[in-house]
Amino acid sequence: MHDNAILSVRELTERIKSLLEGSFPFVWVRGEVTNLARPGSGHVYFSLRDGDAMLNCVWFRGRQKAQEAFDPLTGEIFEDGPRPCLAQTMQEGDAILCAGNISVFGPRGQYQLIVTLAQEADQKGELLRRLEILRQKLASEGLFARERKRPLPEEPERVALLTAPTGAAIQDFLRIARSRGTGASIRIYPVPVQGAEAPPRIIRALDAANADGWANVAVIIRGGGSLEDLWAFNDEALARAVAASRLPVLTGIGHEIDTSLCDLAADCRAATPSHAAQLLWHERRWHEQRLDACAIALGKNAQRHREQATARLNAMEKAMRWFSPRQRLARGNERLKELSLRLDSRLQFQLQQKRRQVSGISEQFLRLARVSAPSRRLQEEEALERRFYAAMRRLLQDKPQRLALLAARLEGLNPYAPLARGYAMVSTESGKLVCGVKTLAPGGLLRMTFQDGRALARVEEILPDKG
Questions:
Q1: Could you give the CA distance from residue 436 to residue 109 in angstroms, rounded to a whole number?
Q2: Which of 48, 111, 135, 246 has the fewest CB atoms lying closer than 10 Å?
């Protein structure tokens, strides 16, 4: 025998552990409770016995708490408070069904079931056998195929509810619907939910809901009960009617582990009537959060539009100020001041040049005077000086006159100047200047600008000039 064919105890245990845990990741086991122990840790230890066979089980405290708050198999949340867990109520000798995964405890080389959930078991072998035969038949026809199932409408506004008019099921459903604050309309189709009359009555009610075309979804609910109590929902004709329904069908039938044929044929299955309402409508908090998000987005959008409109208005106001008569006049005045300063500077420059020329001429005269006769040179110099000063006076007198003429012409272009003489500038309500009565209409508003303010006037009558 080769050494590599010999396994250590640890290696063999690890292989067994891998094989068992990989083969049974989730399994249902039926048996009788024995060796029940509830230590102070809160965990529950027991064995499931079936004849001479026995399986050790452990139900950890955390998984028990989870089953008190919601159904781990269906996801239903118990909104009416925690429900008693079988871990605290089961007794020695009870027949139960356990679901969980197989785990191998290496130090002892033992395998055990880690329980996820457990429920009481009924000995209904013959009924279950017949139900399984019918289930396989309908499944082979594709009646339960996932491909044919339709999604439920989101937040439906009109619901056709098929159930008994009295009892806990309808009250639980309506209570959840009211607590969600949906405001949906619920039309109740009263039907028996147990006994031989139930399947044909439910079929007729479902046909009626499909025929009137009022509802968005059909909901079939019933409270918990024994397998016999729920047997009506395993009727073949009813399962076919559910599958053929024009409306999407949601079922919430009982609390049993075994799913009914109606559940399999429906578009969606809920574990209980309460869970059915939970699947149809979101919680009120979800709607409030969605409304808050919409309000925030709307506020941001309004703020963005307001900022954009303000920016456009500021740009238009700036452009109108630039092209307004007052601004044009102000720019003209600035231009006039600039030209006046340039003219004064030019005159000063020319005057200095003339003075230098006169000074040069005077020096020439002086030199000539020393050579020529003093009296004749002096007379010529005086005459020349007089001519020079006369020319300068004429030049200086002419410049202010030209400047005054330019200022008068610029003032004549000022549209506000006539206002001081009693005239008024008339424009339409949109700001367009009015140059004649042809553009006016009776009842129109006019803006009249005077020297000291503005006024609004309404056209009563138009009198064109007949001349």
A1: 112
A2: 246
Q: Label residue 320 exposed, middle or buried (CB < 10 Å: 0-12, 13-18, 19+).
A: exposed
Phi and psi at residue 130, to the nearest 5°:
-65, -40
**Which strands make up the sheet holding 158-163, listed edge to edge?**
185-190, 158-163, 217-222, 249-253, 268-270
Q: Examine the fold and report which residue of 93, 121, 149 is the final residue of a domain before the chain moves on.
A: 121
Alpha-helical (H) ranges within 72-165 are: 86-89, 125-140
Domain housing 132: 127-282
Other beta carbons within 10 Å of 88: 11
Query: Are residue 274 and residue 131 in the same domain, yes or no?
Result: yes
Indicate if the pLDDT at residue 14 is higher than 60. yes
Nearest to 97 by CA among 27, 20, 24, 45: 27
List, in order, residues 6 or more apart from 156 with CB less than 8 Å away.
184, 215, 216, 217, 280, 281
Q: Sheet harboring 454-458: ordered strands across?
A: 425-428, 445-449, 454-458
Cα angle 143, 148, 151 (rounded to 5 degrees) comes to: 125
Q: Are residues 161 and 264 in the same domain?
A: yes
Residues with Cβ within 8 Å of 337's Cβ and at least 6 positions away in sequence, in order, are none
**Strands 44-50 and 27-37, how do they pair?**
antiparallel
- Asked if residue 394 and residue 432 are part of one domain, the reply reads no
* Whether residue 258 is found in the same domain as residue 343: no
The identity of residue 64, as a single letter, is Q
Would you say residue 362 has pLDDT above 80?
A: no
What is the pLDDT at residue 224?
A: 82
What φ, ψ does residue 145 adopt, rounded to 5°? -60, 140
Structure-block tokens of residue 175: 């209570």
Spatial distance between the Cα atoms of 279 and 294, rounded to a whole number of angstroms = 23
- The tokens describing 245, both together, are 């329904």
Name which of 60, 307, 79, 100 is nearest 177 in CA terms.
79
Encoded tokens for 349: 């420059």
Q: How many CB atoms lie within 10 A of CB 293?
A: 10
Task: Look up residue 332 and give its amino acid.
Answer: G
At residue 144, the pLDDT reads: 93
Exposed / middle / buried, residue 421 (Cβ in 10 Å: 0-12, 13-18, 19+)? exposed
Side-chain half-sphere CA neighbours of 169 within 13 A? 28
Q: How confident is the model at residue 211 (pLDDT cuts 50, 70, 90)?
A: very high
